[in-house]
Design a protein that fits this description.
Elements lengths: L1 E8 L3 E18 L2 E19 L5 E6 L6 E2 L5 E3 L2 E3 L1 H17 L4 H22 L23
Antiparallel strand pairs: 1-2, 2-3, 3-4, 5-6, 6-7
Amino acid sequence: MATATRIQETERVKIEITLWREVTDKIGDADGYKIDLGREVHESYDVRLTGKATGKVITAYGKADQLFYKAMSGGYRIGNAIVNQDMRDLVMGMVAELDAEISKTKEQVKIETAEEARIAAIDVAKDEPAHGDNGYYRKCHSYCYGDCEA
């Protein structure tokens, strides 16, 4: 497991971000039987914003693209608070620095590449016509010639 932490302070807030990155075995449970489903990548950012004047702590964790959500007020929601664009940009800049600091292992790159290829293959299959050249209907996996729609 690889971890790295960045701490930065502004006039009003102390920002602390930790990146956790590891590759683990993925085990499925099928009615009490443990099934090895290969390896998977776990990556999580733990963000902690502490207000200097109030001592209020805002926490959030997850993948980088899940830390902030656009709020109706025009700001960005993180944890249980709303912050402005400048704070979001500062936090995301620190996230980018952490991502660059902890390089991905060869195994992690291999797993991520395989996952991208699997998703691309699914997208290609969706673009194929419903009927094959010989009349095989992919929706119901038979030669019904579309009669299953009726």
